[in-house]
Amino acid sequence: MTVTRFAPSPTGYIHIGNLRTALFNYLIARKTGGTFILRLDDTDRERSKEEYADGIKRDLEWLGLHWDRVERQSDRLDRYAEMAQFLRGAGRFYECFETPTELDLKRKKQLNMGKPPVYDRAALALDDDARAKMRAEGREGYWRFLLDQQRIEWTDGILGPISIDAASVSDPVLIRADGQVLYTFASSVDDMDMGVTHIVRGADHVTNTATQIQIIEAMGGTAPSFAHHSLLTGAQGEALSKRLGTLSLRDLRAQGVERMALLSLMARLGSSQPVELRADLDEIAEGFDLSQFGAAPTKFDAEDLWPLTRAHVQALPVEAMADELAAVGVPADLAPAFWDVARANVTRRGDVAQWWALCRDGAEPLVDSEDAGFIAEAFKLLPPPPYGPTSWSEWTNAVKAATGRKGKTLFMPLRKAVTGMDHGPDMAALMPLLQKVPGRG
RNA sequence: GGCCCGUUCGUCUAUCGGUUAGGACGUCAGGUUUUCAACCUGAAAAGAGGGGUUCGACUCCCCUACGGGCUGCCA
Asked: A387 vs A114, A204, A233, A252, A391, CA distance in Å?
């Protein structure tokens, strides 16, 4: 049984980077009929906010990434204390007393001497008396996990064989002086307890994986299989983290991006499979294959969402557009005809507003100076609305007979005069919807 | 500074030593269309640099450059 999880910390909303992680884990569970857990990693009491937890849930619901189970780390504090006690007994936890400032100083010294800034395990040498003395000085202990200094190896689902020397990594701090359990530990306990079988996360967690494998094994568990997807960069290759604020899911949604456009792109970007618009998550899951993803950082350009959004919106049946059409004031009886005319000329659902405004209010005629006389004459031949399906051809034929113009020089000035634009829906189909033509006459 | 990963058309990528280096999206041109969109046809477009190994290297090895990540009592 496959068990995956998406484990955001509720310190912000879902953005384009998180979304990829959530989607991959969802798809793996979905594809194999497994379980997808939403786990809120909220051990950081200061930064975690209920508002964000709710926001994350709403965003996942909008995307359609339904979870089978929800967990909160703040509900599991007793369990972490229990496993911490177990690891102390096993000699894998040791208490340290350096202050953050002291640690910072140590790192700087090491760096200056050209050495890697790895914790020197000074606290490991402390005996009971020394520890008592530290406490007497008012210092509060925090706890590190004693790494077994060997190479840690695993076969990554995306990166392939990875080997990291534990000696190049500091013993991770797992419990702070104020008792707060840190991510690396809570996550390891949870993944073990919840039977998580596959973890897909960003490449920023590769080093964590090395230590978490040891932590899970020290607790008597078996490490799940890991896969680390490349991180997204901006279109110019710059780190995306700086721009994440403008790429939150809610912003993209507010701009009119369609969820299937977003999901279709994210399920394929960075893989060798072509990006294709899919109709639903089942279709996306069907073709999803982690092994098709590359390890190189992936450039993400939000502009790529628009062609997919347009294709999705243009294929929508009128029923799916009912709310949007009603919102801009399209009468229900005109909706099907209007949507048929407008659909080929919209990218976002909201774009129908401008076309309906044209139909309802008419447009300021756009007349090139050399066409002024021609348009004046043409408008004399145009009866007032309402128009029928043959109005356009009747009018253009009449104008053609009266002026001798034909082809593009005939049609284009008329289009511009009637709609105020040089592009737009098919004129023959548009005419019957026009309720006003202000420039007429 | 140390550690991990990476570098093929504009973009995402294929190629498990021998290919006219393939596909998709985008771009451009032609066709169709009153326009836009859509559709059809076609085109341009790539192996970071330097050393090896080999009959032969995009592919294997080393170095350099560049990009990303980690190097927190954040996640």
From this structure: 82, 62, 52, 39, 6
